[in-house]
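Try this one yourself first.
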């Protein structure tokens, strides 16, 4: 580490935000394929990115977005894509449970 630079202390919310961003990145790769209902998941991703850009981290908003993702999954007709989206739904739940690792 360079002289004079201090290391930012990570909070649980920083860790959660980073984990959620990773889930969204993986989800974007999954929806590259064209399928019926794709516009719903793309709209959800857009809303989630807006939420991630906010400086504050309100858990209630993230839980609401996870509920919305479940609604999108239920409306997805492509069975293979529904399973892939369901995996992302579980990953999002695990991301929201993350905490800072103690030394």
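Now uncover the answer:
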């Amino acid at each position: 580490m360079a002289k004079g630079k201090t290391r930012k202390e990570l909070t649980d919310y920083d860790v959660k935000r980073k984990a959620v961003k990773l889930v969204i990145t993986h989800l974007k790769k999954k929806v590259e394929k064209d399928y019926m209902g794709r516009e719903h998941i793309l709209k959800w991703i857009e809303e989630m990115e807006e939420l991630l850009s906010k400086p504050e981290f309100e858990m209630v908003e993230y839980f609401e977005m996870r509920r919305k993702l479940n609604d999108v999954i239920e409306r997805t007709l492509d069975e293979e894509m529904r399973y892939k989206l369901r995996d992302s739904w579980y990953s999002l739940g695990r991301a929201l449970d993350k905490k800072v690792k103690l030394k």
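Discussion: The chain is about 70% helix and 0% strand. Residues 25 and 70 are 18 Å apart (CA to CA).
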